[in-house]
Amino acid sequence: MTGRILLLGGVTEALALARQLGPQHVYSLAGIGRVPQDLACQVRVGGFGGAAGLASYLREAGISLLVDATHPYAAQISRNAASAARVAGIPCWALRRPAWQAQAGDDWREVEDWAGLIEALKPFCRPLFTLGREPLQHLHEIPPGQFWTLRALEACPGNARCEVIGARGPFHIEDERALFQRRRVDVLISKNSGSVATEPKLEVARELGVPVLILKRPPLPEVDRAFDSLSGLTAALDLRE
Ligand code: NAP
Q: Does 227 reside within a domain?
């Protein structure tokens, strides 16, 4: 592969790919998580200022291929990437993780949005939220009789009816089982990230017969090439210089 790649990151596979990129390429992060300090490629942090800002960056930095390896729920940056690449006249490739599929014994219920989630939660008392920080905005809405457990990257204060736990994956099944038991979880709330690192919670829910409310994946834009695995993407990039 000749030319200069801009890799949009935010998930584990993106970091693994960034580790294979030489110094002419750029790895871009939103700035929410940790910023690696040991990469050979260039690292930039923070937004571009929408699709127009990203298109300008692509031109100014002489990028010849945009690779979107962001999280499947990070729909805004994916839309911006597809549109900016079109404006800049370069291809946009994307790593699109396959969604988890329910197995025998699973009780998965898909919800559209926060309102649908709150409605679907009504029969339950002890939900475990694994959606990141978004539920923190809703702590005042916890109905009487519900006790929430909320897991996010960083711990922060909850309230009398919500414990907030800070933890980063990968998660292990024994720890997930212990968490479900300690917090007496009767329903799990999750995105369908498709990540191996966060899948053990689904195994525990299956084991314990706990229903799972899954926030529907957002629609993502068409791109020039989409890959469902890092190995497929890496092979197509042919990074031997
Ligand atoms: P989002 O709503 O799609 O993006 C919001 C804004 O953040 C974008 O418009 C862009 O700002 C900036 N941005 C996002 N990813 C960027 C990147 N790789 N490099 C530079 N700027 C970036 O995304 P989000 O859901 O807030 O997620 C933010 C980041 O966290 C993403 O990179 C995503 O991969 C990662 N992440 C998200 C989730 C999730 O559940 N959503 C989970 C794990 C990791 P400008 O418009 O100013 O360019």
A: yes
CA of 8 to the centre of ligand 1 (A): 9
Helix (H, G, I), strand (E, B) or coil at 152: strand
Please tell me the predicted confidence (pLDDT) of residue 241.
Answer: 62
Residues for the chain: how many in total? Answer: 241
Establish whether residue 29 lines the binding site of ligand 1, counting it when its CB lies within 6 angstroms of any ligand atom: yes
Q: Are 173 and 186 within one domain?
A: yes
**Within this chain, do residues 40 and 115 fall inside the same structural domain, yes or no?**
no
Q: Determine the Cα–Cα distance for residues 186 and 209; give it in Å rounded to an integer.
A: 9
Ligand 1 pocket check for 89: Cβ under 6 Å: no
Q: What angle do CA 201, 133, 176 make, to 5 degrees?
A: 20
CA 27 to chain centre: 17
The answer to whether the Cα torsion of 31, 12, 210, 216 is positive or negative is positive
Ligand 1 atom having least distance to the Cα of 77? 3
Whether 185 and 233 share a structural domain? no
The pLDDT score that the predictor gives to residue 32 is 84
Query: How many domains is the chain partitioned into structurally?
Result: 2
Ligand 1, atom nearest to 54 Cα: 48
Q: Please tell me the distance between residue 118's alpha carbon and the centre of ligand 1 in angstroms.
A: 25
Domain that holds residue 120: 108-215
Residue 120 sits in the same domain as residue 185: yes
pTM of full prediction above 0.90 = yes
Residue nearest to ligand 1 atom 43, measured at CA: 71
Amino acid at 179: L
Q: Which residues 6+ apart lie within 8 Å of 49 measured at CB?
A: none
Summarised one tens digit per residue, pLDDT across range 159-169 is: 999 999 999 99
